[in-house]
Amino acid sequence: MSAVLATPDLAAYCLETAQRVKHAAADLAVCTGAQKNGWLRASAVALRKATKEIIAANELDLAAAPGFGLTEAAIDRLRLNPKRVEEIAVGLEEVAALPDPIGEVIESTIRPNGLQILKTRVPLGVVFFIYESRPNVTADAAAICLKSGNGVILRGGKEAAHSSRAIVDVLKSCANDFGLPADALHLVETADRTAVGHFLGLPQYIDVAIPRGGESLIRRVTAEAKMPVIKHFDGNCHVYIDQFADVEIAERVVVNSKCHRLGVCNAAESLLVHSAVAAKMLPRIANALMAQGIEIRGDEATQRLTKAKPATEEDYGKEYLGPIISCKVVDSLDEAIEHINRYGSKHTDAIITGNLAAARSFTARVDSSAVMVNASTRFNDGFQFGLGAEIGISTDKFHARGPCGLKELTTYKYVCYGDGQVRE
Amino acid sequence: MSAVLATPDLAAYCLETAQRVKHAAADLAVCTGAQKNGWLRASAVALRKATKEIIAANELDLAAAPGFGLTEAAIDRLRLNPKRVEEIAVGLEEVAALPDPIGEVIESTIRPNGLQILKTRVPLGVVFFIYESRPNVTADAAAICLKSGNGVILRGGKEAAHSSRAIVDVLKSCANDFGLPADALHLVETADRTAVGHFLGLPQYIDVAIPRGGESLIRRVTAEAKMPVIKHFDGNCHVYIDQFADVEIAERVVVNSKCHRLGVCNAAESLLVHSAVAAKMLPRIANALMAQGIEIRGDEATQRLTKAKPATEEDYGKEYLGPIISCKVVDSLDEAIEHINRYGSKHTDAIITGNLAAARSFTARVDSSAVMVNASTRFNDGFQFGLGAEIGISTDKFHARGPCGLKELTTYKYVCYGDGQVRE
């Protein structure tokens, strides 16, 4: 397909694609785990065999990268080599090894009239996945969607177009051998951004949209989508050091939450410290952060105790995604909770405390997808939580909250067995 | 509050209301089951005591009813008497007797690093419930929402305004005694329909909208809501009589599915019969339906075997909510499944069969919230499924599907306990 299509053709292409994936998804929904796992494992083998071709396709992307204005770091993330292709193949095998979520009877009951009610896990249907990321995400997303019995329409960044095409071609080529409908996996090829809008307007064929990338992309998808969206806009995550905190744990968790990776959604962006321990703990923790090159922006109390620059109101609402952290001294646990619920992103927030009542109150009242006690915010992640896979993190409360793995791409239906029951 | 407010005042009222309910909901979320149940039971006692006042308020509604153009049947549904007030009180006690959904650890794991992950059930937050119905729905909805820890904004029909006000006043008056925030329960008093639009534009304070009533109301709410909606538009439910059906069961289930109550979403609106048994079964079942005053609209094969009128294409997509059923003779199970997935509402569909493979294929492939085997479609209902309560039925796949009781008004958060864990 050419990279540029006239609008009517583009609309027709999107409609026809969505219908075809939906139709294939209905067949995929009743395929067995053995079929899906067989396909994933065969795809891993085929990817390894196709390493040369995939790297050749990747070289086309790399050659075009400067023209797209990619930074050196972005080009490095785009680059495939034999080791990275091997990692992609291993990723498919890891998804194959996960339990099949489909068909699980989540709850069941036999009613007094003998009617058996089985609340049964089934796929959502068709996922529209929009991402800006590295070629390995193409393989990961395909594996997670198909393993959970869903058709998927992949809309990756144009920067990785050739690499993604090569990977998807390999995966599709392995579907037939296991009786799987290859049409359930579709890579959108046009670079025309209006295609995204067309797909987002087809709720009758697409059951969920999952955008992953910058906040502007996610806001655009959320505003336009006529189907539900699994998403988070940002991650203004907090660590609160309670008056009953252990200073060693506090320092370790704050430094890890902030510094382990700066540009990720579960990195800490704000530090709150109880006034009763601020003089004792804050200078030490500030030094540890500054030793890692982190700039601190704090309120007056923080400035008195550290070399922090002044924080503005805006700083407390900010996701820096870089070497800056905001800091505030609070007079109570309640003030910390209120601050987090006001300025935070409902993503991940942590308390450092040895006090049971404080831990219970914080975890009950902080309204976030994950609340950590004496642990790094960086643990809010599908792999770290043991889901075995992750297609995104949700800060919404509806359907899926927190890391989304295989189960979060499913729904349920009620299957009821009787022998002639009627309502009296 | 007066029934008419200027637009800026109305917008401010809606915003202020939503903020106040959201704030109260945060407190309600951490109240105990004993508090919530105490409040429900005390409300039941108080309602019984206030029977005279409630009936007096109801008489104001009844007096105004002809002016609203209500039918005799609608006026009868609106009417309260001591028996109906007693039923409302018993309804509150029944919700009090249900298990508290909040705080349940749905799944848990201890990761290899010692981090304990508790996937914990919590309330959604604030429910906006829009309904056109009888005064008892006001009490039921309040009970379900508050028991599940959610604040609720009730927007009932103007026809029941005085009755609903009297009931809500009683419920609110009992909240303080149990330390519950009375502000978590709010009845919208203005008759101005634009208030609904204002509330639907406040996703930061309202977590879910639940419309219950006619399809046009539900379509309007779904189109305008900036927050998720739990809903079904309609219920074009099918009964399919397989070639391996028992004719006694087939007749009983078809008649019950169609005739038990005509105007409800889980009533059958379409009958499919396998051609191998049509000659034997269809005349008998058609006679049984016609004996109940049901008009049959069928394809040519149906017309040959019964006194059916001709069915148009439109008939197969129709929810009659009345004494009509469409009928079609199909040549295979697959044709029946395809027909249902094409024309149905994804609500409730039934197969009558003694054949295991047919039952398994039908339940796996029919893409509806509930699929019945040898049982009436009328069982797709929160009470019939044993949920103990119901605020609506969802035909969507996201979050909640099928009957929605207490659990369907909850979400989860991850609560993680560690002792200093950080990511390596």
Task: Describe what you observe in this structure.
Two copies of one chain form a homodimer. Chain A has 424 residues and is an alpha/beta fold. The first copy, chain A, has two domains: 7-230 and 404-416, Aldehyde Dehydrogenase, Chain A, domain 1 (3-Layer(aba) Sandwich), CATH 3.40.605; 237-379, Aldehyde Dehydrogenase, Chain A, domain 2. In chain A, 42% of the residues lie in helices and 21% in strands. Chain A is built from 15 helices and 16 strands. Chain A has helices at 7-28, 33-49, 51-64, 72-78, 82-97, 135-147, 161-173, 194-200, 215-224, 247-259, 275-291, 300-305, 313-316, 333-343, 356-365, and strands at residues 105-110, 116-123, 126-131, 151-155, 185-187, 208-212, 237-241, 268-274, 295-298, 309-310, 324-330, 348-352, 370-375, 392-394, 402-404, 410-421. In chain A, the strands form four sheets. A seven-stranded parallel beta sheet of chain A has the order 10-9-11-8-7-12-13, with helices on both faces. A four-stranded parallel beta sheet of chain A has the order 5-4-3-6, with helices on both faces. In chain A, strands 1-2-16 form a three-stranded antiparallel beta sheet, with no helix packed on it. In chain A, a hairpin with a 7-residue loop joins strand 14 and strand 15 (402-404). The relative contact order of chain A is 0.13. Strand 16 of chain A pairs parallel with strand 13 of chain B. Chains A, B: Catalyzes the NADPH-dependent reduction of L-glutamate 5-phosphate into L-glutamate 5-semialdehyde and phosphate. The product spontaneously undergoes cyclization to form 1-pyrroline-5-carboxylate. Chains A, B: It is found in: Cytoplasm. Chains A, B: InterPro entries: Ald_DH/histidinol_DH (IPR016161), Ald_DH_C (IPR016163), Ald_DH_N (IPR016162), Aldehyde_DH_dom (IPR015590), G-glutamylP_reductase_CS (IPR020593), Glu-5-SA_DH (IPR012134), GPR_dom (IPR000965).
